[in-house]
Amino acid sequence: MKLGIVGTGNISSRHLDEFQKIKDVNVEAVCDTNEKNLNIFLDKYKLLNIRGYLTLGEMLEKEKNFDGISNTTPDKFHKETTLQILEKGYNIFCEKPLAENYEDAKEMVAAASKSKKINMVNFTYREASAYQKLVDTIKSGAIGIPRHISACYYQSWLASNKWGDWRKEDKWLWRLSKKHGSNGALGDTGVHIFDFAVNAVGDIKEVFADLKTYKDKGKRIKNYVLDANDGFNALVRFENGAIGTITNTRYATGHANSLILEVFCTKGSVKVELDEERTKWTTLHICQAENINRMSWQTIDCPKTSNNYENFIKSIQINKNIQPDFKQGAKIQKIIDSCIKSNDNNSWIDINNI
Q1: Domain range enclosing 153
Q2: CA distances from 278 to 18, 102, 129, 180, 334 (A)
Q3: Cβ–Cβ < 8 Å for 132, 284
Q4: DSSP 111-164
Q5: Coil, helix or strand for 287?
């Protein structure tokens, strides 16, 4: 199976590495309008003899035998590149968020539906086997009906140097600037935690969001205006009657990259806590049956499951979309847009009216 990659920024190496691990799958070509980034990528992987192009159009014109294309471009280019890829009739694996706004996301969903091609969004944390077990447990009804959820996404790169100094690197600075296509923490990592909650509990009906941008980190660095949000708190009401809080911050000192989801139901509770090192990705915590009155939690080890890259290839092979697809990506983008509107209006927003 032969793949192409659009974009050679930081995340593209992860895509290449993961796809190359899959038997009989090869990345044949990449493209990037940034010649410097393209050459760095090609030099890094020169032993793989990957062909490079400076435009997507050129790659699509000269490469005729792709089974799928991975879109790793910055957020603001997702729509235009994805539409080009679908127009040429290729299956597509797109980085999150699907688009910059819900209107663009809807257009991408329509194009994917028209093309009848496999389409997936890379919500990375779906891959955790403990999370998949949590979802299955809730949907089975074994612990009753969801009543309350707490979902948190914690990063600390604005308060630590684990990933380098954000003040000096473009790969971090663009995430702080609306002009450069960033919806801040809400759009960058908020999409993950909302997908985490919605996929497990069900659709969100209403949201009340408070976005926060900390001015004391400065107004501008180089050509980056630091005006995107650094974190948010959101109150949510689900269609099924459950309520909860969903939060995200880049100032969570002590957490490199942690996702915590707790779902409290009428007959028990489940919890996962994912970490940067992935040491907890197979651990599910559950409180049910006789343990409810004991306030005791059982720990379940969940065997490793397929990742999104493997599921994309499998989807192509069986010609059936495995989740998360573009429709899910658009659903999450609709929530993101609703959070922005809620913050601007200081009010509850009915997501169905967006």
Answers
A1: 125-305+333-353
A2: 16, 31, 11, 31, 29
A3: no
A4: HHHHHT--EEEE-GGGG-HHHHHHHHHHHHTTT--EEEEEEEEEE-TTT--TT-
A5: strand
Looking at the fold, whether 202 and 348 belong to one and the same domain comes out as: yes
* Closest by CA position to 7, among listed 29, 27, 32: 32
pLDDT tens digit string along 70-107? 999 988 899 999 999 999 999 999 999 999 999 999 99
CA distances (Å), origin 88, targets 115, 271, 309: 9, 43, 21
Same domain, 69 and 28: yes
| Alpha-carbon span 281 to 303, nearest angstrom | 10
Same domain, 286 and 224: yes
- For the chain, the average pLDDT equals 97
d(CA 264, CA 287): 9
C-alpha 294: how far from chain center: 37
Exposed / middle / buried, residue 324 (Cβ in 10 Å: 0-12, 13-18, 19+) = buried
Closest CA to 211 of 41, 83, 337: 337
The 10 Å CB-count burial string (b at 16+, else e) for 189-227 is: bbbbbbbbbbbbbbebbbbbbebebeeeeeeebeebbbe
User: Is the pTM higher than 0.85?
Assistant: yes
**pLDDT tens-digit map of 22-62:** 999 999 999 999 999 999 999 999 999 999 999 999 999 99
Residue type, position 307, single letter: N
C-alpha–C-alpha distance, residues 237 and 335, integer Å: 12
Residue 185: CB partners within 8 Å, gap ≥ 6? Answer: 155, 228, 229, 230, 231, 232, 248, 249, 250
- Please check whether residues 232 and 209 belong to one and the same domain: yes
Residue 103 lies in a domain: yes
Task: Give the closest residue to 343 by CA, choosing from 183, 118, 171, 121.
Answer: 183
Examine the domain organization and report whether 82 and 166 are in the same domain: no
The answer to whether residues 155 and 189 touch, using CB atoms and an 8 Å cutoff, is yes
236 with 289, same domain: the answer is yes
Number of domains present in the structure of the chain: 2
User: Residue 328: inside a domain, yes or no?
Assistant: no
Q: Is the peptide bond before 97 cis (omega within 30 degrees of 0)?
A: yes
